[in-house]
Amino acid sequence: MTTTASSQPTLRTESWWVRVAVWIVPIVVMVVVWHFITTGLGSIFFPTPATIWDVLRDDYLSGPATRLFLGDVVFDHLVPSLWRFALGWGFAVVSGVLWGLLFGLRPGWRAWVEPLLEFGRAIPPPLVLGIVFVTFGAGDLPKAALIAFGAVWPVLFNTIDGVISVSEVRIAAGRTFGWGRRERITRIIIPDAGSSIFAGVRVSLGIGLILMVLTEFVGAANGLGYTIVRAQRGFDFAAMWAALVVLAVLGLVLNALIVLLEAKLLGWRATSERGLDV
């Protein structure tokens, strides 16, 4: 018993180091490979990691202490992008989960709206960029609406699939315990569909970030997409790659936060993911 108890911290420590290594090692390898390739090429289109870092330091990390050492580009371009993304993606996640629960619980309603849902999912959001901007302008709300339109579908359909896949036995057990509809939804259906919902949320995250940049390519005066286009037109490829690095880091951080939230809310599934210790 003592040996088993003492081994638990070691296992947890090793697991923590493995998780850190899984995140860090591929990035380090990629940077090293990129360094040797770009150093050998000597092309202005593919700057070295050191050159990109200089731009990141000067533009994004050169502010005063009162601004947390963040540069002007962060507040002039990154913050507006994050604001539009938060509006659009947040609306997509909330509405996708709510409508997914509704249609998952109401097969009759789902049968009526399914053709419309499939039609909407089949429309590529970039194709309606021009129509939306001409009709509603190129402000923050139209951009956020396009992000929401493209990011809502994975959340919606994954939520529907998760609700449909809930075991009828578990629902029947809830009725046996005397749980009402609300309790069955909150205690059985949503937790059981949680993994599917979070999978849709993570997919929609990538779509939302892509649309965030695309909507800033046209009719924008700020944002990461605007920064990338301006750098391309000015042949400042180091600044372009720096913006892409910021976008990649943003995606990694947001994805990690979603994974942590999923682990916090669905920690009871950890045993099935790790396997049983028999």
Major pleated sheet: none
Q: What class do helices, strands and sheet pairing give? A: mainly alpha
Low-pLDDT runs of 5+ residues are 1-13, 271-278
- C-alpha Rg (nearest Å): 23 Å
The sequence of SSEs as H and E is: HHHHHHHHHHH
Counting DSSP E segments of at least 2 residues, the number of strands comes to: 0
Query: What's the shape?
Result: globular
The termini sit apart by: 15 Å
Q: What is the number of helices?
A: 11
The proportion of strand residues reads under 5%
Helix content: over 70%
**What is the residue-averaged pLDDT?**
86
In summary, what is this structure?
The chain has helices at 2-41, 49-60, 72-105, 107-122, 129-136, 140-164, 168-176, 181-215, 224-233, 237-265, 270-274. With 278 residues, it is an all-alpha fold.
